Amino acid sequence: MYKHVLVYLTEDASHDAVIELINEEAFGPGRFTRAAARxxxxxxxxxxxxxxxxxxxxxxxxxxxxxxxxxxxxGHLLGPLAVRPSHKNLGIGRELVRIAVEAAKRRGSExxxxxxxxxxxxxxxxxxxxxxxxxxxxxxxPNRVLVVPIAADTHARLKGTIAWADASVPVVSDTGDxxxxxxxxxxxx
Length: 189
Ligand SMILES: CC(C)(COP(=O)(O)OP(=O)(O)OC[C@H]1O[C@@H](n2cnc3c(N)ncnc32)[C@H](O)[C@@H]1OP(=O)(O)O)[C@@H](O)C(=O)NCCC(=O)NCCS
Prior knowledge:
Largest sheet: 9 strands, mixed
Number of domains: 1
Radius of gyration: 17 Å
Enzyme class: transferase
Bound molecules: coenzyme A
CATH class: Alpha Beta
Pfam family, one: Acetyltransf_1
Domain N-acetyltransferase: 6-151
GO molecular function: acyltransferase activity
Organism: Rhizobium calliandrae
CATH architecture: 3-Layer(aba) Sandwich
Number of helices: 6
Distance between the termini: 44 Å
């Protein structure tokens, strides 16, 4: 009988080719037209918050995290999340989400945002973003825009556009309160 030996690792460049295959298999060619993909085209994902799962040394699942500014929230967009069909329903998807969200919290991220199925992500701590509060660079179903709010006032500040953002660059605030302009790296715990 096949014995799974699952290991979760931080992504590095050596995983790029297999992650491409996993995402192709899961989402097909249409994956590049999705609104979330349009954000990911704007800049690189953060490898240090992105993870793979390997079974007996073979990479079989991946989750990526991309730094974004959503309204005035400095957060991360989670996705793509994909598990090879041979390894579905083993809890791997849930574990990758859990690891990525915990890593984002440790980094000082204010929110983890995604476009996905509420029945899957709800039990993992994701809540619906207020209807149409965020404008994506393409059409999305507003009922599928979800967030793990990390900062206390996240929901109130998730209003406006969502776009890739260099997490090391301070947000220009119009409040005049300099403390709110700290770069992500400076508020990491
Ligand atoms: C969705 C996906 C990542 C789940 O990964 P996984 O490792 O198989 O999931 P887990 O083992 O953690 O969880 C399995 C549970 O989630 C449920 N589930 C899977 N996909 C779901 C969905 N889209 N909506 C609701 N529930 C879902 C399963 O029915 C199963 O339920 P059970 O525990 O009650 O039996 C995987 O099926 C996949 O790669 N799908 C194709 C790509 C995709 O849709 N990615 C998500 C984009 S939002």
